């Protein structure tokens, strides 16, 4: 039995769906009365009968490295024999970050493990930027920097394949990217072509971007996080592509054009 944490989120729900498509037994854990990261007493029941775990941080993961310690201790008691950690692209280059520390804790836990580090996902354009795109713009402070976006369903496919036969992946870490690295200006051109309407890359400064977010009454902590995140994009930290997805799945990840074509109605309605 596979426990999928974060099963109502973008990543967890995609993994759960893919496991179900592959007819692999899975159990969904949600942030509710049955499983709560803030209530370690819920871990025991959630882990009963579980031998593999898809582990992902909740949206507010500032202290996730601390939250997983009692979880992993309970997992060992429950005889869990494999943990697949969904981390962050580049976490291995920032060992003092929350996810850098989390990776170390998982690798030192004594449980067999693997790590996937997805780059930015195309679904961000739906989850966060769809209204701007409908209005004809991409409004992100990245200048000319490029990002190797990947579809979350490709991340889920790779994750499910690892969970199906974990022995092939013990102790390995994979950086999952798309097959192309594109600037937001290039992406705006692809949106324009597929949607049949002009989409412009506005490329505000980081300060302008944060001021816009603050005008939407978003929490200052979130605004600072988003500003720092896109400063890292502007610095070129998310540019490189890898063949890790193809190595796991023996398929190529979908392209930006294919993603936009598949979701054309979402960006037009």
What attributes characterize this protein structure?
alpha/beta, 2 domains, 13 helices, UDP-galactose 4-epimerase, domain 1, 43% helix, 269 residues, globular, Rossmann fold, six-stranded parallel sheet, 10 strands
Major beta-sheet overview:
6 strands, parallel
Number of domains: 2
The general outline is: globular
Q: Can you write the helix and strand succession as a string?
A: EHEHEHEHEHHEEHEEHEHHHHH
CATH architecture tag of the largest domain = 3-Layer(aba) Sandwich
CATH homologous superfamily title of the largest domain: NAD(P)-binding Rossmann-like Domain
Residue stretches low in confidence (pLDDT < 50, at least 5 long) are none
CATH topology of the largest domain: Rossmann fold
Taken as a percent bin, the fraction of beta residues is: 5-15%
* Average pLDDT rating: 94
Briefly say what this structure is:
The protein is an alpha/beta fold and 269 residues long. Helix content is 43%, strand content 13%. The protein has 13 helices and ten strands.
């Amino acid at each position: 039995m596979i426990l999928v944490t974060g099963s109502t989120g973008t990543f967890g729900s995609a993994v759960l769906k893919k496991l179900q498509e592959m007819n692999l037994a899975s159990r969904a854990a949600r942030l509710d009365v049955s499983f709560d990261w803030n209530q370690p007493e819920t871990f025991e029941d959630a882990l009963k009968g579980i031998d593999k775990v898809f582990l992902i941080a909740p949206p507010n993961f500032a202290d996730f490295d601390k939250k997983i310690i009692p979880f992993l201790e309970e997992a060992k008691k429950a005889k869990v024999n494999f943990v697949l950690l969904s981390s962050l692209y580049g976490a291995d280059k920032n060992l003092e970050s929350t996810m850098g520390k989390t990776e170390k804790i998982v690798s030192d836990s004594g449980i067999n493990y693997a790590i996937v580090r997805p780059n930015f996902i195309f679904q961000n354009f739906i989850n966060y930027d769809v209204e701007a795109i409908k209005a004809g713009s991409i409004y992100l402070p990245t200048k000319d920097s490029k990002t190797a976006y990947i579809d979350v369903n490709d991340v889920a496919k790779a994750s499910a394949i690892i969970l199906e036969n974990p022995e092939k992946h013990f102790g390995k870490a994979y950086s999952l990217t798309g097959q192309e690295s594109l600037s937001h200006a290039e992406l705006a051109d692809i949106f324009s072509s597929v949607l049949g309407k002009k989409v412009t890359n506005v490329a505000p400064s980081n300060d302008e971007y944060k001021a816009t977010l603050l005008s939407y009454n978003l929490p200052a902590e979130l605004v600072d996080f988003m500003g720092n995140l896109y400063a890292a994009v502007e610095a070129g930290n998310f540019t490189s592509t890898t063949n890790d997805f193809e190595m796991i799945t023996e398929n190529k990840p979908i392209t930006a054009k294919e993603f936009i074509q598949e979701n054309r109605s979402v960006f037009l309605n």
